[in-house]
Amino acid sequence: MAPQDSPTVACPGGDAAASTPLGGPRLDLDCWFLSGPTAAGKTALALHLAGRLDAEIVSVDSMAVYRGLDVGTAKPSLAEQAAVPHHLLDIISPAESFSVAGWLAAAAAAVEEIRGRGRRILFVGGTPLYLRALRDGLAPLPAGDPAFRAALEAEVRRDGTHALHTRLAAIDPAAASRIHPHDAKRIIRALEVAHATGRPLTAAFAPAPHPVFDSQLLVIDLPRRLLSDRIDRRVEAMFGHGLVEETRAAAALPGGIGPTARQAPGYTEALDVLIGTLSLADAIRRTQDRTRQLAKRQLTWLRSFKNAIWITA
After folding, report:
1. What distance in Å separates the CA atoms of residue 252 and residue 131, rounded to the nearest whole number?
2. What is the pTM of this model?
3. Does domain 31-140+208-222+303-312 have CATH number 3.40.50.300?
4. Inter-CA distances, 129 with 95, 126, 134, 137, 239, Å
5. CATH architecture designation of domain 146-204
6. How far is 121 from 207, CA to CA, in rounded Å?
């Protein structure tokens, strides 16, 4: 896995076969991309598309990388994975964090394996940060400042993330709008870049949209009420199909469920149910609210891909 602070550079937009210098996937006309908000129906459509394209699926989901977190991440079932080969599922433990650079490196390896079998590649998922990195590469960023980072981490342990997120919003409103107020890791990294360079994190990016990505990205869009109803039903099904039990099992593993994995709606709530600080009914309602917020953020990011093909229902 590439380290969190490894510098990578945006891939040139004019070369359809270009790859990111530190091992990102080489995108070409054999690559297709399917995204959309959570609960929009990406899995079902992806299976259909993969069959039509003779493709294998590369997951673009920052939570599906975790082993044992199946119910709460709505992973494709074993039968669905048997029908179409899937990649980048179940590759790290719930205690670990996973950088965008690490995902790009893993995706590059998967893509070349698929090409070696003479098949196309269908990238599927709703993590826009991964999609943006796939399209643009990663900007060169400074090495971390251990002392500065340690001070910020101590502040998070003492006071939580709200004050740091507010500080980030004052320095870099664009980055703050894309980073969840509870995502301590990414808030700290953005502040660290600003501290080291005197410039906001977003100023480091010089996007050069990849021509293949621009022309072959499909985004599922649903009417807001329909999407909200689907989210409610999905969350109820997650808890009904063993989310609390899955959380108990993962929490008992060495390292438990780390802070990155807990960002997936449902796991923090299930942990609160297990320790008795939240009722099951309240956990379901809170998870539904968090999932709707996630879908809203996903759609906001996805609208920045101006040439995407939007599929409405």
Report:
1. 32
2. 0.76
3. yes
4. 21, 9, 9, 11, 27
5. Orthogonal Bundle (1.10)
6. 23
pLDDT given at position 18 = 40
**Residue 252 CA to its chain's centroid (Å):** 25
Specify the pairing of strand 309-312 against strand 31-35: unpaired
List, for the chain, all residue ranges whose pLDDT scores fall below the cut of 70. 1-23, 139-144, 201-209, 313
**Encoded tokens for 153:** 């981490």
Phi-psi region of 198 (alpha: psi -120 to 50; beta: other; left: phi over 0): left
Task: Indicate the domain borders of the chain.
Answer: 31-140+208-222+303-312, 146-204, 224-297
Provide the pLDDT for residue 190. 86
| Region 224-297: CATH code | 1.10.287.890
Under a CB-based contact definition with an 8 Å cutoff, are residues 185 and 99 in contact? no
Question: Residue 53 in contact with residue 29, Cβ under 8 Å?
Answer: no
Torsion from C-alpha of 96, 97, 100, 106, nearest 10 degrees: 0
Q: Write the single-letter amino acid at 119.
A: R
pLDDT at 189: 85
* pLDDT value of position 11: 32
